[in-house]
Amino acid sequence: MAGPQARHRRGQKIDGWIILDKPQGITSAHAVAKIKRLLDAAKVGHGGTLDPLATGVLPIALGAATKMVPYVMDGTKLYHFTLKFGEARDTDDAEGAITATSDIRPEAAMIDAALVAFRGLIMQVPPAFSAIKVGGERAYDLARAGAPPDLPPRPAQIDRFALIGRPDADHALFEVASGKGVYMRSLARDLARSLGTVGHIAALRRLSVGPFEIGNAVTLDNLADSLHSPDSVPDIVLPVETALADIPALALTEAEAAALRNGMALSLVDLMGRIPTATNPDGGLVRGLAGHRFVVLGKLHQGMLRPERVI
């Protein structure tokens, strides 16, 4: 029987981010579990799920960084994906079963013309194989059981959708910049349908999530190798505030920082001259810094600065 120490041991307290270049073939949850084991970390989460087929940027939150996950998931995401024309699949990607075929292969000019309708704020029907809950059950569980749900369309913000390559008649390469909760599989499926054919995603790579970019990402092998040299681990783990790099900074006194950390609100009158000019006075966010230390994420509302997340 395990003793009290073994039962209560929760791993090391590590705060910060790892930008993982997720490999193909594993779930985001599997990637989190592997990093948790590698680092022996007490608390680990992720900012934005990637399908097993997909590769690329998966922000891994450690310790206090898990409080920042909602703000990371709200950030703009950049993707490259390959659409294969001629085959519809039940998962809308290469892992599913073929449900329909077509001999139609659209020309590049037709594709470019069709893309216009998929930019801006659109309505999108999520894939049947998705984590959306329907009557308390995940859509993918219902789909696997042979009863795919009829999901209603949802708003989706598409800032960029461009054709960037055409290797052959069967395939087209796209770049997409999108907001929160946009499904690339649905974009590929619906674009093909709008062109009078069918299609699915054959490859998908995420290049950025908010401030996290693929150029700064590490692989699971990189991470495992770095653990042979303990001094290199801090270089891989980025500070908690890295996730909020695009949120304006506000200098606080130690007394102000302590008040916010204790849940108190501060009058904006007392902060005049320090509030970043780009910040929306009604709902805008700021990074509260005491010296060089990030201590609180605050929200401006009704003439007050209120703590949103405390570190």
Automatic annotation (TrEMBL):
<dbReference type="InterPro" id="IPR032819">
    <property type="entry name" value="TruB_C"/>
</dbReference>
<dbReference type="GO" id="GO:0031119">
    <property type="term" value="P:tRNA pseudouridine synthesis"/>
</dbReference>
<comment type="function">
    <text>Responsible for synthesis of pseudouridine from uracil-55 in the psi GC loop of transfer RNAs.</text>
</comment>
<dbReference type="GO" id="GO:1990481">
    <property type="term" value="P:mRNA pseudouridine synthesis"/>
</dbReference>
<dbReference type="InterPro" id="IPR014780">
    <property type="entry name" value="tRNA_psdUridine_synth_TruB"/>
</dbReference>
<keyword id="KW-0819">tRNA processing</keyword>
<dbReference type="InterPro" id="IPR002501">
    <property type="entry name" value="PsdUridine_synth_N"/>
</dbReference>
<dbReference type="InterPro" id="IPR020103">
    <property type="entry name" value="PsdUridine_synth_cat_dom_sf"/>
</dbReference>
<dbReference type="Pfam" id="PF01509">
    <property type="entry name" value="TruB_N"/>
</dbReference>
<keyword id="KW-0413">Isomerase</keyword>
<feature type="domain" description="tRNA pseudouridylate synthase B C-terminal">
    <location>
        <begin position="185"/>
        <end position="244"/>
    </location>
</feature>
<dbReference type="Pfam" id="PF16198">
    <property type="entry name" value="TruB_C_2"/>
</dbReference>
<dbReference type="GO" id="GO:0160148">
    <property type="term" value="F:tRNA pseudouridine(55) synthase activity"/>
</dbReference>
<dbReference type="GO" id="GO:0003723">
    <property type="term" value="F:RNA binding"/>
</dbReference>
<feature type="domain" description="Pseudouridine synthase II N-terminal">
    <location>
        <begin position="36"/>
        <end position="184"/>
    </location>
</feature>
<protein>
    <recommendedName>
        <fullName>tRNA pseudouridine synthase B</fullName>
        <ecNumber>5.4.99.25</ecNumber>
    </recommendedName>
</protein>
<feature type="active site" description="Nucleophile">
    <location>
        <position position="51"/>
    </location>
</feature>
<comment type="similarity">
    <text>Belongs to the pseudouridine synthase TruB family. Type 1 subfamily.</text>
</comment>
